Amino acid sequence: MVGLKPSDVPPPLGVKVLSAGTAACFADLVTFPLDTAKVRLQIQGEKATVGAAEGIRYRGVFGTISTMIRTEGPRSIYNGLVAGLQRQMAFASIRIGLYDNVKDFYSGGKDHASVGIRILAGCTTGAMAVSCAQPTDVVKVRFQAQQNLQGVARRYNGTMQAYRQIFQLEGLKGLWKGTLPNITRNALVNCTELVSYDLIKQAILTRKLLSDNLPCHFVSAFGAGFITTVIASPVDVVKTRYMNSPPGQYKSAINCSWTMMTKEGPTAFYKGFIPSFLRLGSWNVVMFVSFEQLKRVMMVTKKKYETTT
């Protein structure tokens, strides 16, 4: 199981779910500017800029962040943070917190599940998480894409207002816009991220290269972040563009992919790759290290509470 030695008693489901959601929020607080830069780079070139936005071009992850701070102010790199934290509490708590239990269910409780079982468990929890958290993802992406410039109309002024406006103008369908590419993307991300973390960590511990502690968690998380970015980047770009698009711009996610291919070429699918990797690599490190430590702290607290009652 992720984060447990064979001799350990598995933490209860509630501990894993709460630890996963909290750790993911920590990771988002640290890496959110990188995620915003990734979104801006992914949608760049999608449509013609007008007004104050004309002439602004983003180059590289740190160039994008500095351009945003210079033209829109320092708060701009945290546009959509509230929706981002809401997303993680609904999303990561399911996709990461339920992973071990779903893996055990598919494997019949075996100690060493096969790679196929781990992939199936990752895809299952990823799809479940997207189904619940999709509206928060739509609002987050739209806030990150929104430019705070004079002369450029703002689509949304607050998180709750954004939910209401999307529902009023686009219906429930608008809040769940891009669910298919998002399920595809997160099934890929989840099974790649969790399975590669699981396998890298297991290999390190089996070969006794490191003990089950922070350095081992760091190496496993960073490796999982790189592998996941390579596999999931094309779907991530399509998901971002489709969710951010106004009604009628694309007929479907497939139409969005085809438009990107014909107008911008295959390299468009890897736009924002460096910030994606920097964000996912650092997010994985912060999240998994926090997750492992939070589980241990909660288990110790639970045992102390049980001994005193």
- Gross morphology is globular
What does the radius of gyration come to? 20 Å
Task: Tell me the total number of β-strands.
Answer: 0
* Beta strand %: under 5%
The mean pLDDT is 83
Q: What is the terminal-to-terminal distance?
A: 29 Å
Report the order of strands and helices: HHHHHHHHHH
Helix content: over 70%
Low-pLDDT sequence parts: 3-7, 48-52
Tally of helical segments: 10
Helix vs. strand class: mainly alpha
The largest sheet is: none
Description:
It is a single chain. By secondary structure, the chain is mainly α. Helix content is 72%, strand content 0%. The protein has 10 helices and no strands. The chain is globular, with a radius of gyration of 20 Å. The two termini are 29 Å apart. 46% of the residues are buried. The N terminus is likely disordered.
What's the short version?
The protein is 72% helix and 0% strand. It has 10 helices and no strands. Helix 4 packs antiparallel against helix 5.
Q: Which structural traits does this protein have?
A:
309 residues; mainly alpha; 10 helices; globular; disordered N terminus
Task: Summarize the helices and strands and which ones pair or pack.
Elements: H1 13-43, H2 61-72, H3 81-95, H4 99-107, H5 115-145, H6 159-175, H7 179-206, H8 214-244, H9 253-264, H10 273-308
Helix pairs in contact: 1-2, 1-3, 1-10, 3-5, 4-5, 5-6, 5-7, 7-8, 8-9, 8-10
